[in-house]
Specification:
The protein has 409 residues and is of the alpha/beta class. Helices cover 39% and strands 20% of the residues.
Length: 409
């Protein structure tokens, strides 16, 4: 039997329950046993060794629900302060990727460096999207959970046949997903989602990231349509599927029958009130990427409306190709700047419980509660943090968070 320790701190932030001043977490090496006030837990567990974290906040580790590790060697956002538009950025990305390669030692080392940095910043789980299997290869090196999704995209019949055959032949544990409604044929999206549903796996997909996506889906025109047609990515002229509501990306996916509580709509910027209702009614998950959105200048997601409908989004960093810094602390900071009306406590919940729920790992991660992992964070605090409001402001808006791992394996 593992020895019990009582981790005491000035504040405990369970996320799934009220913040506790002068709180404690009782845990063995694997699991949390109890969370509460230090006085109460000391009486209940007098045999437990006391580990005092002083002026710190004990919090769950962070969940980065959307990252592209295989693009780590393509730091476009750091080298180019501005881009001319969404498709201009895609062109730059594809050109640089062709030049640099995607299965090279440089790509692998860069991805490995990003993973190490994520751990240093307090991330315990990631949802990685890639066209290669680099993320899957590095998964065993990460001291946490790395869910790697093989991303499929294409609109031609030949591409669809190739990708569907690959998914059918893959081991059942391998995760597959579709890139985006504009880049992936409706049949391919449906078939990949059907596989994920049969295996009870998450299904992340980029949705409503650019306003031009809606224009393509609705009318078969616009910036994205011209770009894809120019690259020979579409068979003949694109015609929106008959009988499908193409007036918005969420409506389009809903009519395809792929929205449910295991689907993750990533970015989700250009959505209507009616589409938010659809997301809420279907239990569809949302992942926001404020840093990438800001760099690409594609808009801000309607975060307050999501929260008002009972939707707690996750947060993701996306990749160095569209974000100069991959830090969930920065993502929280930027989201707070973009949405000052959103409570910092809600933003911190997005980076923890929201991410865990979105990836389907909230039985172990995302909050401090009995039965969950004993690996969590101690966040050193300044002397002037004397209230719950100040605490959440510090967690979300500070530029100097240096988390310390508790029960590091």
């Amino acid at each position: 039997m593992n020895a019990l320790s009582l981790h005491r701190a000035a504040w405990v932030v369970p996320v799934s329950g009220p913040v506790i001043k002068d709180g404690a977490v009782a845990a063995d090496r694997q699991h949390i046993i109890a969370v509460g006030s230090f006085t109460a837990l000391r009486k209940k567990h007098p045999e437990a060794a006391i580990l005092d974290h002083g002026r710190s906040a004990l919090t769950p580790a962070l969940i980065n629900a959307h990252i592209h590790l295989e693009l780590s060697h393509l730091p476009i956002a750091s080298h180019h302060k501005e881009i001319k538009g969404f498709t201009h950025w895609i062109e730059r990305l594809l050109s640089l990727r062709e030049e640099m390669g995607s299965l090279t030692g440089t790509a692998e080392n860069a991805a490995r460096d990003v993973l190490r940095r994520q751990h240093t910043l307090g991330v315990i789980a990631l949802g990685d999207i890639g066209n290669t299997e680099l993320g899957a290869k590095l998964g065993s090196e990460f001291p946490g959970v790395l869910l790697h999704f093989t991303e499929c995209l294409g609109r031609t019949a030949k591409t669809r046949r190739t990708l569907l055959a690959r998914a059918a032949a893959a081991p059942r544990h391998q995760l597959f997903t579709a890139h985006a409604p504009y880049s992936t044929h409706a049949e391919l999206i449906q078939r990949l989602k059907r596989r994920a549903a049969e295996l009870n796996q998450p299904f992340p997909i980029h949705v409503a990231e650019s306003s031009s996506e809606n224009e393509m889906l609705c009318r078969g025109t616009g910036e994205l349509h011209s770009f894809l047609k120019g690259r020979g990515f579409i068979d003949d002229s694109y015609i929106p599927p008959a009988g499908i509501d193409n007036s918005g990306s969420v409506k389009y996916l809903h009519d395809l029958g792929v929205l449910d509580n295991r689907t993750i709509c990533v970015h989700c910027i250009h959505v209507t009130l009616a589409e938010i209702d659809i997301l809420a009614a279907t239990g569809t998950k949302i992942c926001l990427c404020p840093g990438s959105n800001r760099y690409l200048r594609i808009g801000k997601a309607p975060v307050s409306l999501f929260l008002a409908r009972g939707l707690l989004p996750a947060l993701g960093t996306d990749s160095l190709a569209s974000n100069p810094e991959l830090s969930l602390w920065r993502e929280m900071n930027l989201l707070s700047e973009d949405h000052p009306a959103v409570e910092p406590a809600d933003i911190f919940a997005m980076a923890t419980l929201g991410g865990a729920t979105t990836l389907g790992i909230d039985d172990v991660y995302g909050s401090l509660a009995p039965g969950k992992t004993a690996r969590f964070l101690a966040i050193p605090l300044a002397e002037n943090v004397t209230s719950e409001a100040m605490l959440h402001n510090h967690l979300v808006k500070s530029n100097s968070i240096q988390p310390i791992w508790v029960n590091e394996q």
